[in-house]
Amino acid sequence: FTIFLIFILPVVATSQNISSISVVLKPPYSSNYSAYENLANRAIITIIGGLENTDIYLTGTLANTQSDFFIHTSSDYIPTGVTFTVPANQPKVIINDVSKMRFLARNNVEHQGISEQDWANVLQNDQLPEGQYELCVQAMRMDVDGIPVELGRGCATFSITHAQPPIITTPINNQVIPSIQPNLVFSWTPPIGNTLGAQMVYDLYAVQLIPGQSPDEAIDAAVNFKANNPFVKTNLTSNQYVTLPYDLKLVSGHTYAVQVVVRDLNKKVTFQNNGRSEVVVFNYGNTDQSINEKD
User: Which pLDDT score is estimated for 16?
Assistant: First the structure.
């Protein structure tokens, strides 16, 4: 019984050095991993001191609670230059101190629950998977033997969703467009969701359907390989395009598939379905032409 108390009492005394720690993450919640590598000006970390002044440093975890994705500050993280003092019975607020808030930077973390290739993709594309997340911050100190001891932690939960791709509004699916119409109008909605920091451009594809070919197959070939001489307009900055006299002419009496693809030149935003809209089909210039309907 006496030996048991000897081991327990130091732990209880140590935990009293921090009364509480809370974390507030500022919205919007980015899908960029780099946004969490440096939490300065993105998170507000409030630490309430305990019975005495305490020198601590911060570590953290980031977990997708709907999958096995999990990263945490490395066990060999060396808190050189990032230790600070929390005064007794007083709050210490960390908001914009870069040196103290880089505990989830790529060189300071270990990952679990995903393959090395998937982790490499996260780093290369700077994109986290969609889902519910929990960000936790731990207040740590070194004991007399140089072993890290956790004094307390605070967590914040948030959701990461990728922006939805555009929706084509003109033409509508299965519409017949008279060939006497001098100009065709293609229009679409802007992406829905968090697009903060994005510089969005649109690529417009229209391709004639070959007999027996599905609209999805035709568009995939047009987008990926420019197959079947598609009508293509890239880097459009508005959500509408009106055809011009020098554009590729559409053939009267034929059915076409259309898709709009949004891209972020700043590579800050990820879009669902790789930014590709639903495929829309229309017939050009022949009201008697049967359209290959898309479900």
Answer: 53
